[in-house]
Automatic annotation (TrEMBL):
Gene3D superfamilies per the UniProt record, alphabetical: STAS domain
Taxonomic lineage of the native organism: Bacteria, Bacillati, Actinomycetota, Actinomycetes, Kitasatosporales
Top-level division of the source organism's lineage: Bacteria
InterPro entries, A to Z: MlaB-like_STAS, STAS_dom, STAS_dom_sf
Coiled coil region boundaries: none
Name of a matching Pfam family: STAS_2
Residues of the STAS domain: 15-111
Protein name: Anti-sigma factor antagonist
Amino acid sequence: MTYDHPRIQVLLDEDGVRVVVLSGEFDVDSVGPLAQVLADAAREGVRRVVDIARVTFADSSLLNILLAGDREDHLIVAGPVPEQFAQLLRLFAAEMELEIAPTLAEARGRSTRSSSSE
């Protein structure tokens, strides 16, 4: 069994949107840095998009960080959502609480539109 180390990549802000790209496995031991990245972006007043397309495993810790980040200041989750995480979303009925876009491009577009409509 191999472990796919978690990776968090923060892309340069464009049009007031900060994209956070996740890859690898996320659990209670690895979500702390993501929580900090999302909190920093919220404090700075930038829109947040979290790309989870390359997440190979996630437990409820990642889901909790995304839900908390969304409650703090709206964020958009970009897919395609990996099947394992989609099951977690359904299990906790979280797909009704989080805004999920099928692609990163669509998530960026939604985020840009929502920031320009304020």
